[in-house]
């Protein structure tokens, strides 16, 4: 097998396609600086020949280019058995495998993987790590000092050879010498427990191996960091090349300059349009001024004509108002004369009504004097009767306390007598029919059976036949009866009565007198009502005062020839008063109507005067306005000035319309607001893109310098050989 060429893309640091050519028969040397990717190429060659294209092992994932989503593509050309083969495989993404023999496709996919192994005389699944995979020595980088791991067949063959050699060596005296020599040699490096002996070769070898492993770990860590830095450095170099691309930079600047030029043209067009619009505004202002001047003069001319018409109208109206006011003044004088006559008649009617009322009042007052005199006499009689009743009540009244004392004394006497009767002997007298009227007990005739208590000595006489005396025994109850009788006598004496019945009779009479007094008081109150609470005079005095006032009124109101007894009939007086009031009311209505007519005429006269004054003021005002307007522009100059101002207005309008047309054309050439905003955004975006590109280029330069410094600091030259040696 002779390898003729190797190509990779998307593998490790080789993101783009890299091809190794010129390989052939004999010794081929691949020379490049450390970390240039030699080991990556050999890993790619191994995996292309011995790994399935769909495999996802860690070894295959290590082929991936950092920071790129690219398939790992490997192409191997080799010669075998006089035939030229070309193997193409892609791993990780868009996986596939194709095998070409002498330019013709012979296998695809999984069949291509197995066809390669068949062409190399390998069984399917043979590991590339086995030394028997090639008919030559295949040593990986960093594995030159690692012990070989034989396959199962190799291990069986070696076992058979060693067994034969050992059997031959260990047989006889020679075997014993070899065993003793090995044992003695082993005792120098091993303890009795099978541990390495200090100072021995075994212990020294173990120490060197541990030191070498530590050094190897450090070298591998440095190599990994160096590999990452170089990968990042390559990425940054490619990014710098892209950022520093003169064509792209020139294109961006050209776009920016074109956008700036377009924006400048837009600004100039906007300025020109604004200047034209400013001129339009100025022309419009001049046109408005000229038009306004012409319109003001036209308005002045029209106003002068209208003012003259108003002056003529107002002159006629002033004359008419003066005539109307004179006529109204005459009507007012007539109404005032009639009103004065009615006022005189009304005053006389008012005096007649007053006289009739005084006559009627005098008659009424005379009747009231008579009525008050009668009431006063009756009130005095009632007051005297009430006084007599009160005196009689005071004389015969018995206080309720005295009645209660008499009743208590009688109850005590009755109780004492009852106790004495209960203790006294009982005398029963039964009279036969023949003895009726002949038996007398205690001075009373007994006609039938009678029980008598002998409280005191009792005498019973039987006609002329016999006298029986019953003497009761001495008892304390007699003294109690005497005490009770004395108390009763005292109570009766204090009350001024002879018995309890008399006391009750007196109290009943007092109640009747009080009822009679209340009736008289009610009658008195009806005749002479009680004065208000707090008044200093009583009802009689109030009646006397009212009578005096009525008499005084009567005396004052009666005219000469009339007195209280010679007044006419009340009905006649009322009729006279009613007739006088009716006549007065008729005159009042006529007077009110005349007064209303006077007021209306006076108001109308004042209104006519005000209308005349208003017309005169309007006339003076219009004459003043006419003088002011003529002072502004007299009649002899107004026609020429109107013609000149009309020409100026027409010229200003033509200039304004021309300027407006030009401004419209210039404004149409200005891009829209959205277009200007988009253009500004484009300029800003292009400027930012160029500035960002320059800033990023400077940043990438700094990152490249940092990465180059780290690569140089880590001593990249010779790290791979030092790792292999270690």
Automatic annotation (TrEMBL):
GO terms for biological process: double-strand break repair. This is Rad50/SbcC-type AAA domain-containing protein. Gene3D superfamilies: P-loop containing nucleotide triphosphate hydrolases. GO terms for molecular function: ATP hydrolysis activity. InterPro entries: P-loop_NTPase, Rad50/SbcC_AAA. The keyword Coiled coil applies. Residues 9-84 form the Rad50/SbcC-type AAA domain. The keyword Transmembrane does not apply. Residues 209-236, 346-423, 533-597, 649-710 form a coiled coil. Keywords: Coiled coil.
């Amino acid at each position: 097998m002779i390898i003729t060429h190797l190509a990779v893309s998307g593998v490790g640091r080789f993101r783009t396609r890299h091809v190794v050519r010129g390989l052939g028969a004999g010794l081929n040397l691949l020379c490049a600086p450390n970390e240039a990717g030699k080991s990556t190429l050999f890993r790619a060659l191994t995996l292309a020949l011995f790994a399935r294209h769909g495999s996802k092992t860690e070894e295959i994932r290590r082929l991936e280019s950092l920071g790129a989503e690219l398939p790992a593509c490997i192409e191997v050309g080799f010669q075998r058995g006089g035939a030229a083969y070309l193997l193409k495989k892609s791993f990780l993404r868009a996986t596939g495998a194709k095998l070409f023999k002498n330019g013709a496709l012979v296998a695809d996919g999984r069949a291509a993987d197995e066809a390669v192994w068949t062409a190399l005389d390998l069984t399917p699944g043979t590991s590339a790590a086995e030394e028997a995979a090639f008919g030559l020595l295949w040593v990986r980088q960093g594995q030159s000092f690692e012990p070989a791991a034989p396959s199962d067949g190799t291990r069986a063959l070696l076992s058979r050879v060693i067994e034969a050699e050992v059997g031959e060596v260990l047989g006889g005296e020679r075997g014993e010498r070899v065993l003793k020599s090995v044992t003695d040699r082993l005792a120098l490096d091993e303890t009795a427990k099978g541990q390495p002996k200090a100072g021995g070769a075994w212990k020294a070898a173990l120490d060197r191996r541990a030191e070498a492993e530590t050094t190897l770990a450090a070298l591998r860590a440095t190599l990994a960091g160096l590999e990452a830095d170089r990968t990042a450095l390559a990425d940054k170099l490619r990014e710098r090349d892209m950022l520093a691309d003169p064509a792209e930079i020139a294109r961006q600047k050209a776009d920016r300059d074109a956008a700036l030029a377009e924006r400048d043209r837009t600004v100039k067009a906007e300025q020109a349009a604004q200047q034209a619009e400013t001129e339009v505004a100025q022309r419009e202002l001049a046109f408005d001024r000229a038009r306004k001047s012409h319109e003001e003069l036209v308005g002045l001319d029209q106003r002068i004509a209208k003012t003259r018409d108003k002056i003529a109208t107002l002159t006629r109206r002033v004359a008419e108002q003066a005539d109307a006011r004179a006529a109204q003044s005459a009507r007012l004088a007539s109404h005032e004369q009639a009103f004065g006559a009615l006022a005189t008649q009304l005053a006389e009617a008012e005096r007649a009504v007053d006289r009739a009322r005084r006559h009627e009042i005098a008659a009424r007052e005379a009747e009231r004097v008579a009525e008050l005199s009668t009431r006063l006499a009756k009130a005095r009689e009632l007051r005297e009767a009430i006084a007599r009743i009160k005196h009689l009540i005071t004389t015969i009244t018995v206080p309720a306390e005295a009645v209660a004392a008499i009743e208590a004394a009688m109850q005590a006497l009755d109780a004492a007598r009852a106790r004495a009767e209960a203790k006294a002997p009982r005398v029963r007298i039964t009279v036969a029919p023949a003895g009726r009227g002949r038996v007398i007990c205690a001075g009373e005739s007994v006609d039938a059976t009678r029980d008598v208590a002998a409280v005191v000595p009792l005498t019973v006489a039987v006609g002329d036949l016999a006298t029986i005396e019953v003497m009761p025994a001495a008892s304390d109850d007699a003294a109690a009866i005497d005490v009770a009788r004395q108390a009763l006598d005292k109570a009766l004496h204090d009350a001024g009565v002879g018995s309890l019945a008399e006391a009750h009779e007196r109290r009943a009479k007092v109640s009747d007198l009080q009822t009679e007094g209340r009736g008289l008081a009610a009658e008195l109150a009806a005749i002479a009502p009680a004065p208000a609470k707090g008044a200093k005079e009583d009802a009689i005095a109030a009646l006397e005062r009212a009578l005096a006032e009525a008499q005084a009124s009567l005396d004052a109101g009666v005219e000469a020839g009339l007195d209280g007894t010679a007044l006419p009939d009340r009905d006649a007086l009322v009729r006279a008063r009613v007739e006088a009031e009716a006549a007065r009311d008729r005159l009042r209505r006529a007077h009110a109507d005349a007064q209303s007519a006077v007021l209306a005429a006076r108001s109308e006269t004042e209104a006519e005067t005000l209308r005349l004054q208003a017309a005169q003021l309007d006339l003076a005002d219009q004459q003043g306005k006419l003088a002011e307007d003529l002072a502004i522009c007299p009649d002899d100059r107004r026609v020429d000035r109107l013609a000149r101002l009309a020409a100026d207005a027409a010229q200003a309008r033509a200039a304004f319309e021309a300027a407006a047309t030009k401004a419209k054309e210039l404004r149409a050439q200005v891009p829209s607001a959205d277009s200007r905003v988009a253009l500004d955004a484009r300029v800003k975006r292009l400027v930012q893109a160029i500035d960002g590109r320059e800033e990023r280029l400077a940043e990438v330069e700094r990152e490249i310098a940092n990465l180059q410094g780290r690569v140089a600091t880590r001593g990249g030259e010779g790290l791979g050989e030092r790792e292999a040696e270690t």
